[in-house]
Design brief:
492 residues; 9-stranded mixed β-sheet; 2 domains; FAD/NAD(P)-binding domain; 13 helices; 5-stranded parallel β-sheet
């Protein structure tokens, strides 16, 4: 049963999503624009976004927390690559330390938003569910000067699973990591993990601790990069300088390090391939078919490198607790999976670590004076605003470095823009792109989840400020040190 409220609450800023981006946006608003009223709406029952949603064994970041964490809050743990529970603790600490709790409203899902040019405000329709009364909800309306969409770019309610022939024949259990069942007992069981991306390489060593055996079944290999779980230089600097003073030094070191690895892979792909193969071979038993299972058909960083802390995936392979099989699925059977090669893999549980589904801005239906906004017909401006859409920002992080590095810069720019509007007596701002400007896909990335959905995303142009930059140093010059307004940004 759904009821409707007629009261309309007015806010300066509405932040959508209470994950790592939304929490960061709330803190920057509190610190840089303390007079602004704002709320952070979260459709789910908990704060933390990805780090609360995903519950599969072993879940962790594949970026170091000195750069994946916030610029304003040092990472104090000894582990650089951290587990989801510790990241969630860090986010909850950020909420408490910055007084964000009263601003966060759970069970609030934004459905649609219509911009009124006459009022220079968004009228936002929200569905609020009642956790005490399943099926009961209320429709609310909020009036907001700005929308800041901080929900990332993938669907929280649905992971991607391709069609598998014969899936219904399998007598065991099939699960997707995005919806990991709390009651899944895998100890002593034979498990197949279908996939070779970050989720799969995280799951396999974690499951192998208790499962009878784990098989990672991949159609094509991924590049695997073993890294230390702890950063010895960072830990030494923290002991010498203290966490606060060491934080910017460590952060800059790791930004430079990330950038150097990416540039090396881009400029010298053959050499990078050899280095990665050598690192993998050293971690594997003698005579292991490295080229069959760890030699992708694409260049390094055409897709994101999969990080394995302390080489845990390779350790599971060395111990015989796990195996990698490369091949194409013909069909599921009653007892496992039959490959096109004729090989049959037996399993009690099959995990489909087959990726994500993308969506823009939490799939909010946007309109301007009643006219629907088509996201693919817009062009990204400074990596955050959309051409022709007033008072609207997206928070999308890097694909070749830590997500939060980019989002932090976007939040800083957003707060600067709010201050600019106040100082000049403006109420609205929107970028205008040249109609003849050539455009290309928003994300220049070869990952399957991107290719499946890229046609539904906004576009990017050929040069700044219309480029979806993946370079922290360029973005810092544009967003932090550059002018707030340019000839492309219009005001009213």
């Amino acid at each position: 049963m759904t009821t409707t409220s007629t009261a309309v609450e007015r806010l300066d800023v509405l932040v959508v999503g209470a994950g790592i981006s939304g929490i960061g946006a709330g803190r920057y608003l509190k610190a840089e624009q303390p007079t602004k009223t704002f709320a952070i709406l979260e459709a789910r029952a908990a704060t933390g976004g990805t780090w609360d949603l995903f519950r599969y064994p072993g879940i962790r970041s594949d970026s170091d927390l000195y750069t994946f964490g916030y610029d304003f809050k040092p990472w104090r743990d000894k582990d650089s690559i951290a587990s989801a529970p510790r990241i969630l603790d860090y986010l909850h600490e950020t909420v408490a330390e910055n007084g964000l709790g009263p601003h966060i409203r759970h069970h609030h899902k934004v459905l649609r938003a219509d911009w009124s040019s006459a009022e220079a405000r968004w009228l936002v329709e929200v569905e609020r569910t009642d956790p005490e009364r399943p099926g009961a909800s209320e429709r609310l309306q909020l009036s907001a000067g700005w929308l800041f969409c901080a929900g990332g770019y993938y669907r929280y309610d649905e992971g991607y699973t391709p069609h598998f022939e014969g899936r219904d024949r399998f007598r065991g259990r099939v699960v997707h990591p995005q919806h990991w069942p709390e009651d899944l007992a895998y100890a002593g069981k034979r498990v197949i993990v279908v996939g070779s991306g970050a989720t799969a390489v995280t799951l396999v060593p974690a499951l192998a601790e208790d499962a009878a055996h784990v098989t990672m079944l991949q159609r094509t290999p991924s590049y695997i990069l073993p890294v230390p779980r702890e950063d010895p230089i960072a830990n030494r600097l923290k002991r010498l300088l203290g966490a606060e003073r060491a934080h910017p030094v460590i952060r800059r070191k790791n930004v430079v390090q990330q950038r150097a690895v990416w540039l090396f892979c881009q400029r010298f792909p053959r050499a990078a391939r050899k280095v990665l193969r050598s690192l993998n071979a050293k971690q594997l038993p003698d005579g292991y078919p490295v080229d069959e299972h760890f030699d992708p058909p694409y260049d390094p960083w055409d897709q994101r490198l999969c990080v394995v802390p302390d080489g845990d995936l390779f350790a599971a392979l060395r111990r015989g607790r796990a195996a990698v099989v490369t091949g194409r699925i013909s069909t599921f059977t009653e007892t496992g999976i039959l490959l096109e090669s004729g090989e049959e893999l037996e399993a009690d549980i099959i995990v489909t670590a087959t990726g994500l589904n993308l969506q823009v801005a939490g799939a909010i239906d946007l309109s301007i004076d009643g006219r629907p906004v088509s996201y693919p017909e817009t062009v990204i401006y400074r990596g955050t605003m959309l051409s022709g859409v007033p008072n609207f920002c997206l928070a999308i992080g890097y694909t070749n470095a830590s997500w939060t590095l980019k989002v932090g810069l976007l939040c800083e720019y957003f707060c600067q823009l709010l201050g600019y509007l106040d100082a000049h007596g403006h109420r609205a701002a929107w970028p205008v792109a040249d109609p003849g400007m050539p455009t290309r896909p928003l994300l220049d990335f070869d990952a399957g989840y991107v290719k499946r959905s890229v046609a539904e995303l906004p576009r990017q142009g050929p040069a700044a400020p219309w480029v979806m930059s993946m370079n922290f140093f360029e973005d810092r010059r544009l967003l932090r040190a550059g002018t707030v307004a340019d000839r492309h940004l219009h005001f009213a």
